[in-house]
Model the fold of this input.
Amino acid sequence: MKYLDEINALIESLSKYQGVGPKTAERLAINTVTKWNNEEIDNFINALVDIKKLKRCKYCGNITKDDVCEICNSRSNKKIMVIEDVKDLFAIEKCEAYDGVYHILDGVINYQAGITPLDLNLEPLFSRAKEADEIIIATNPSIEGEITAQYIKEMLKDEKCNVTRIAYGLPVGGNLEYADSKTLEKALEGRRNIK
Ligand SMILES: [Zn+2]
Done:
């Protein structure tokens, strides 16, 4: 006996989430069918319809309703912090210790997983770097985060801007997203020039 097509379609959509394997997708799909009422399903549909209106900022990759995000619109772009993920932006904004703009890579270089520099949002960074005084690399202290930081440093070697790396008080493999505000603030203060 196989699942109905409707359920298979839902399993397929849920499997698109990063980190959700087929078993989890199956569980979520069945849960939706058996536990959710129509109103809850409508709310989910409406939330998905609404996010279709959102865009990525054409400069930094932040999520925005307009072409350019509020941060890029209101702050000087002399200091650009390079981060892996949109979630990192929210973590850093929460600690209120940074007043520059961001650049979101949407990942890190991971040759083993087939993720090369071409798969990341890097080109807009290299053009923005020409106007900047400092590029702060805040990728996570993982092997991939380090490889990515080295790659960016190398690509910026002929630009006049400084390239700094934040000083993690985090163990290797720690994640910026889970660091508390004090740790992030210290990491930012202790950044060092790597160029
Ligand atoms: Zn932006």
